[in-house]
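Ex. 9. Protein: Centrosomal protein CEP104 N-terminal domain-containing protein.
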Amino acid sequence: MSVALPYDVLFCTSEDPQHAVSQLGGCAGEVKPGSPVPVGWQSARHGKTPQTLVIRFHGNVWLQQLRILSHEAKIATKVEVRVAKLTEDDDWENPPSFRHVRFAKLGSVDFNSNEQSHFKSKERKTVHLKTEAYFLKLLFDRPFINAFNTGHQVGIYSLECSGYLIEPIACHADELPSPGQPSRRGSTALSPAKSPAREKQPSATPPALVSPDSHRGKRPSRAEAADARPAPLAASTPPPPHSSFSAGGAPSHTAPSGAFRSVRILEFEDFFLRRSEELVSLKAEAVALEDYHVAAECRDKLALLNKCAKEMYELEQDKVQAIIDEQFEVAQQVKVRMNAMVERLFALTALPGAAAPSSSRSADAAAAAAAANAASGVGADTRSRSRSPSQSPGSVSGREGAAAPESVESEAIEPNAEAEVVLSADTLAPHERAVAHAILSCAGSEERASVTLTHPGFDLQPLIAAVGVFTVACLLSRRFKLREAALVVLTEHMDMFQAPAQVVEDALLRFLDLNAYGLQDSIPNVVFAACTFVRMCLADASKCISGVLSPLVALLPRLITRCSDNLQRIRDEALTTLTLYVRTPSVPPSSILPITLMEPTDKERRNLPLSNAKAQLARLSLFQLLVESSRLHVDSAGVSSEQVLHKLLLPTVNHPNPEVRDLAVSVLGKLVADRQLVVRDKELAKITNPGIRDSIASKR
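Predicted structure tokens for Centrosomal protein CEP104 N-terminal domain-containing protein:
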């Protein structure tokens, strides 16, 4: 018999102070019809993506259904469902923490944007599972953007689970957060002081699942002790710009206005997230290997990182206030202080030595191998770098593995897997030294004549052969100014490179298509520089566009993705680049038209739902450019009229978003009036709006 399953929320990525995860409906069982709507849980304003909830049942359960009641406006585009269960190999008397189990992905469910109801109704999504579970992990993807969700939050009123208990468990590993305390506060990244030892907590078996006549006993009180190992994602979230700092007794303050949000603070957040996760992961590994010297070093660096984060946001607030008051001299002084603090933090929070035990001889051998790799221009085989806000730390690149089990710990970056080689501009060959100094000068870093080359996990040899190892190190650098400067020098000073222009353009265009790099970079300035390089290739000053046409066309889906970005400047830059594609005679329409019919994708190449208005506008805008430039030749491009209608125009004509619908009606009406497209009666009947249907019919 299927009944409501009580559960405990163990972890949430973030929470709004007024809508804490403790107010989520459904934790104690079924939300009865007619009862007041729970306050519900909402993520923090401008939080990272995805927002993760981890819940634990009172034992292994047979989970049959999830019912998620979503907020009217703060709606995630989709939710991904993962589960983990205890197996016969596990110690049921001493079960593992959710941080140490392997989660299996079951799939994902899309939500509607709720624009049709003008954000007045609530959507209840029912997910049928039929699986065994002890832990349930929900990853809420980025929210829909609308006028009622200015903080880009995700919100749900209730989460109900139904099924039946298979095997109750007497004790659990994970402590529950104290009342009024977010689940993320147990992390030592925000509280580096030593925490007391973990205690096992007894579990009150829900008698409602065993005997319908009994009542659930009161849960015993719990110690305030936190888990000795912090959740990696909780530790690594930077203080949001809107929220106040309360940890350590620091006074709260108002965040800087988004209108003056500096690129420097974006770079700092990117660094804060990455370095926090690295230090948390390395500290846990050092404790496991009893290397307490490294563990203490990581603890101190985490404390310094959090202290500087508070100071950084306070300086940002001072700078914004100075800009508002037009005290630009003060703003400049604060900017210099911020730059100095970030540079100092880069050096002071460098990762300590590896925690793995090794002899001095093996260390010397590793150093020799690294030097040899540097001489040959090849880095060690290392993990790929993760950089993205919308893919902010915690959105793991391996998330799309079909049903492959995944450990929660994979969300923490393993720093020991990375080997870095320091390259000095003064030791380079003369021609490459000139390029290096040009990049450093453009980045305003002439005093720092060295960069660190981190191997990203893919073959760098074609790129190194084309532009040189120093330029590659700058393109991969964690400092966005170096990434931007390298692209600027490649665009404006192509003649400084020894390789032919076609080789340079081909190698770099292929690099720009990689996840998290180039056109997918998290820093807008780098995206602008990448778009400028693409437009330079389309202008064909080097007369080699025919040789690089393939990688140029391959970038079209990436540009469509950036056309649906949340930042208006990035959307404008991407659309300008797409316009040049259409106006370039060397790029055939047969290469552009199929792109407009493809399902739009996000940065990780996952299909976006039809309800995503910005993505549909991007497709239609590119298609409209083809129509207005008289370059649309449907049948000669290997695409039939039926494909154009059924894959693009009819879905967007029926789209709930008025902006998408109006543009689609305008384009379709023009094509029908000019006899470029034939709409038959059966296709006309698929237009749901009678007024639009009559308007199109009148133009036939």
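Check your answer against this statement. DSSP finds 20 helices and 13 strands in the chain.
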